[in-house]
Amino acid sequence: MDKVPAPAPLISVVIPLYNEGSHLRELLSDLRKALQQTGCHFEIVVIDDGSTDDTWARIQDEAGTLPMLRAMRLSRNFGKELALCAGLERARGEAIVVMDGDGQHPPSLLPTMIEKWRTCGADIVQAVKVKRGRESVTSKAGAFLFYVILNKLSGFELKGASDFKLINRKVLDTWLAMRERNVFFRGMTAWMGFRTIQIPFEVAPRRAGKSGWSYLRRAKLALIGITTFSSFPLRLVTFAGMIFFLFAVGLGIQTLYLKLAGRAFTGFATVILLELIIGSLLMISLGIIGEYLARIYEEVKGRPRYIVSESIEPEQ
After folding, report:
1. Is 287 in the same domain as 308?
2. Averaged over 14-21, what is the pLDDT?
3. CB-based contact 306:50 (threshold 8 Å)
4. Does 66 share its domain with 88?
5. What's the CA dihedral at 43, 48, 54, 59 to 10 degrees?
6. Does the reported pTM lie above 0.85?
7. What does R_g of the chain's alpha carbons equal in angstroms?
8. Which position has the higher pLDDT, 158 or 54?
9. Residue 169: is its pLDDT beyond 50?
10. Inter-CA distances, 24 with 66, 239, 306, Å
11. From CA 58, how far away is CA 27, in angstroms rounded?
12. Which of 43, 105, 183, 220 keeps 20 to 30 A from 65, CA to CA?
């Protein structure tokens, strides 16, 4: 008796967008061509993260010709990670592909990712950067330093990792159960520990425009990544306090001995230097503690992670 072939799965492609209107049509066209090669059913879920250009108007135009397009417009710019949450919470596929909307994640890689998922039994197919593309020296150095620190503090190796990945429904359901408001998608998927296979890719040039990732936004994401995956900086404060306590005890014993021996000296420069060092350490320590308190404060407020102002759903 012939074996009945399994039905083609539904693939969801989730793409956060911010001021990507100038090249949206080309991106969706390339996505459609790549997905049609897979023989799977598919839907494309796009999230307009409070764009200030004509991104939403372009999405509305494309929705008339792409029946598989689903879209949401957030009430303001909530940031890529939270926009990604909005898309993932609405994805209906058996496998979900996450990618950026600037064209640096090549749609041509989708057939390979989907084939790997269907044949290798992996829960996550992760695209790993072999070349970071056109980036300034400071950007590359900052990314390298961040991943080194995160690896040492958390134990997760994320060097070369990106948000360009395929996850199956089991992984998505597990991820959705984590209702954190300080979201770091690539770190959270690594933390879950599902079976992962990697495929290399080269970061393509942006299709148009400039990156919305300023140094300040990158620094903020780095702080979220480090503080949500490791408490070591807090332990570092305690360790530094113990070192200075031992130093203070030793200095106190020396000062008392010199006083009793009649050889005490004013030591004005030494006192000023110690005050500056201790004062700097206290300010840094308070800053580290403040970052963790900020994460706690944002979690306990319980506000929604994002607000949807408009949405587009295809007719059933």
Report:
1. no
2. 92
3. no
4. yes
5. 20
6. no
7. 25
8. 54
9. yes
10. 13, 51, 23
11. 12
12. 105
Which residues have CB under 8 Å from 122's CB, separation 6+? 116, 195, 196, 197
Q: 67 and 84: one domain?
A: yes
- CATH number of the domain that 36 lies in? 3.90.550.10
Within 8 A by CB and 6+ apart from 24, the residues are 17, 55, 58, 59, 62, 101
Mean pLDDT for the chain? 81
Domain of 139, in residue numbers: 10-213+304-312
Asked if residue 14 lies in contact with residue 84, where contact means CB atoms within 8 angstroms, the answer is: yes
Q: With 70 as the cut, is the pLDDT of residue 197 above it?
A: yes
Percent of the chain at pLDDT exceeding 90: 30
Is 38 in the same domain as 78? Answer: yes
d(CA 216, CA 294) in angstroms, rounded, equals 17
Cα–Cα distance for residue pair 113/13, rounded to 1 Å: 12
Q: Are residues 77 and 152 in the same domain?
A: yes
Cα dist from 50 to 144, 207, 245, 254, 312, whole Å: 30, 20, 50, 63, 15
Question: How many distinct structural domains can be found in the chain?
Answer: 2
215 vs 63, residue with greater confidence: 63
How many whole angstroms separate alpha carbon 198 and alpha carbon 125? 6
Q: What's the mean pLDDT in 90-110?
A: 91
Residues 33 and 44 in one domain: yes
Report residue 206's pLDDT band, with 50, 70 and 90 as the boundaries: low
